């Protein structure tokens, strides 16, 4: 069926060329947008439009065609919306009327004319000139069924955007979010910087990297898993408030919350603590929710999420007692933690140290219950190789993660700036890597050297932008908010 349609449309394009017309013309001047026409002239009556003609010129895609005797009605879609274009045999010049007869849904046209109202009162364009600007060879999805198969939608995002207005709106919201984040940080005297994506050493997060090779320099390189270490190098250099809003890459599984390529915001502030960033994060998220939705509460799935400040706060220890059935006396008891890990079917639990067991059990027992915005604080030292030790308990670090709707949205901590301590933690990570931990940090001698020059007391944070957009657009999968998510090749 599709092959027959393509063949027919190819024949139409060839017929145009034979008549001296270009089915891919590029000389039509667009002066108006459908959405602006509706907003500017919504109140004008039929009589007013007839008394004072308003000329318009738009370009867009034909989304529907209706034919009634000597009348043709086209629904034209441009980047701002849709408007109807009407061709009447006795009012539209004959060549343009015939061009209208030859159109197919999906064609891109240029329309000139004047505004009118139909008998039903719809603001429309009375067509006085019609040009085919791009001949569409493939049919759009069926009018009533649309493009609904998820894999096809993601793979053919260009079609998805044509036929699904909700999808177009998701990416408009995404652009709003990025603009708001930049404005929020710029107003607080942060400097936006760009750090390398290709790196000789990866670091800044516990994740497996993508590896590549530079032929000329004959050296292995990695796609960055986070910009953290380079941003802190900049703070050492005197750029005391910096942020990087860009792509990161992690060679890990794909799920509704994970894509190997994703957008991460990281920002660092000298002479600040993780507690300062809690307040700043509350301001940022409350502000962006208000910017997009005009209210502090939003709907996400079956939940109503309230971003009114302050957000709830709970420590790892409190969560283990409240949700994992542990007593305070059992928090450091390896056997009690192992028993809890077995209850939650945590893999390879017997290979984990106490800190990793505490975190794994907390995530299994409590993470899915953290629906409203919640700061989780006081992480074990062993799972936080770049964080500052907590003065009141050296087994913990000054760190928080923000959870919303049962998933991590942000991670922040007061930065470790003791080069001796940092070297020791890198060495421990190297040993963990030798023991089979594929997400362990490598030794980064240059970063230790940077700390030896002196990193001011600093706090830093990373926020997953894709997950934030998921919340703001009520999207269940990260693939809904990434224009071109990674997919397996077509069979």
In short:
This protein has two domains: about 1-140, Nucleic acid-binding proteins (OB fold (Dihydrolipoamide Acetyltransferase, E2P), Beta Barrel); about 165-310 and about 370-480, 2-Layer Sandwich (BirA Bifunctional Protein, domain 2), CATH 3.30.930.10.
Please tag this protein with its features.
single chain, 491 residues, alpha+beta, OB fold (Dihydrolipoamide Acetyltransferase, E2P), BirA Bifunctional Protein, domain 2, 2 domains, nine-stranded mixed β-sheet, five-stranded mixed barrel, 15 helices, 19 strands
What does this structure look like?
The protein has 491 residues and is of the alpha+beta class. It has two domains: 2-140, Beta Barrel (OB fold (Dihydrolipoamide Acetyltransferase, E2P)), CATH 2.40.50.140; 163-311 and 372-480, Bira Bifunctional Protein, Domain 2 (BirA Bifunctional Protein, domain 2, 2-Layer Sandwich), CATH 3.30.930. It has 15 helices and 19 strands. Strands 6, 10, 11, 14, 15, 16, 17, 18 and 19 form a nine-stranded mixed beta sheet that branches. Strands 1-2-3-5-4 form a five-stranded mixed beta barrel. Strand 12 and strand 13 form a beta hairpin. Helix 7 packs across helix 9 (274-293) and helix 7 (165-186) crosses helix 15. The longest helix is centred in the middle third of the chain and has 22 residues, at 165-186. The radius of gyration is 29 Å and the shape is elongated. The mean pLDDT is 95.
CATH homolog superfamily of the largest domain: Bira Bifunctional Protein, Domain 2
CATH class label of the largest domain:
Alpha Beta
How many runs of DSSP E, i.e. beta strands? 19
CATH topology description of the largest domain = BirA Bifunctional Protein, domain 2
Q: Helix/strand-derived class?
A: alpha+beta
* Integer count of domains: 2
CATH architecture group name of the largest domain? 2-Layer Sandwich
């Amino acid at each position: 069926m599709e092959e027959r349609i393509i063949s027919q449309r190819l024949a139409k394009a060839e017929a145009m060329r034979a008549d001296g017309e270009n089915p891919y013309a590029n000389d039509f001047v667009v002066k108006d947008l459908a959405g602006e026409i509706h907003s500017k002239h919504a109140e004008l009556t039929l009589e007013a439009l007839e008394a004072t003609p308003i000329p318009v010129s738009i370009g867009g895609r034909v989304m529907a065609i209706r034919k009634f005797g000597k009348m043709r009605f086209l629904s034209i879609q441009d980047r701002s919306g849709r408007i109807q274009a009407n061709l009447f045999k006795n009012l539209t010049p004959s060549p343009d009327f015939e061009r209208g007869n030859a159109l197919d849904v999906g064609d891109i046209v240029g329309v000139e004319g004047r505004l009118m109202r139909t008998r039903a009162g719809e603001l429309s364009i009375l067509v006085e000139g019609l040009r085919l600007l791009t001949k569409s060879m493939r049919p759009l999805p069926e009018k009533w069924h649309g493009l609904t198969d998820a894999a096809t939608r993601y793979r053919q995002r260009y079609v998805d955007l044509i036929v699904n207005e909700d999808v177009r709106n998701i990416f408009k919201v995404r652009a709003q979010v990025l603009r708001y984040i930049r404005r929020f940080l710029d107003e607080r005297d942060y400097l936006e910087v760009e750090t390398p994506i290709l790196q000789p050493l990866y670091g800044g997060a516990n994740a497996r990297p993508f590896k590549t090779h530079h032929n000329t320099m004959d050296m292995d390189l990695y796609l960055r898993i986070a910009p953290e270490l380079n941003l802190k190098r900049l703070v050492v250099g005197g750029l005391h408030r910096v942020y990087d809003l860009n792509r990161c890459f992690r060679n890990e599984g794909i799920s509704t919350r994970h894509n190997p390529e994703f957008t991460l915001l990281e920002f660092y502030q000298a002479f600040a603590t993780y507690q300062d960033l809690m307040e700043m994060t509350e301001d940022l998220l409350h502000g962006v929710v208000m910017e997009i939705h005009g209210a502090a509460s939003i709907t996400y799935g079956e939940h109503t999420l309230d971003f009114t400040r302050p957000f709830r706060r709970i420590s790892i220890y409190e969560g283990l007692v409240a949700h994992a059935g542990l007593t305070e006396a059992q928090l450091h008891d390896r056997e009690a933690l192992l028993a809890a890990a077995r209850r939650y079917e945590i893999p390879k639990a017997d290979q984990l140290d106490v800190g990793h067991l505490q975190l794994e059990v907390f995530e299994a027992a409590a993470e899915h219950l953290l629906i409203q915005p919640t700061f989780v604080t006081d992480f074990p030292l062993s799972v936080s190789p770049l964080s500052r030790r907590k003065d009141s308990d050296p087994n913990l670090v000054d760190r928080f993660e923000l959870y919303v709707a049962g998933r991590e949205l942000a991670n922040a901590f007061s930065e470790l700036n003791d080069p001796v301590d940092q070297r020791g933690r890198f060495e421990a990570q190297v040993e963990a890597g030798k023991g089979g931990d594929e997400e362990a940090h490598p030794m980064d001698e240059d970063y230790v050297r940077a700390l030896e020059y002196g990193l001011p007391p600093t706090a830093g944070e990373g926020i997953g932008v894709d997950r934030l957009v998921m919340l703001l657009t009520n999207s269940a999968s990260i693939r809904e908010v990434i224009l071109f998510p990674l997919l397996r090749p077509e069979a």
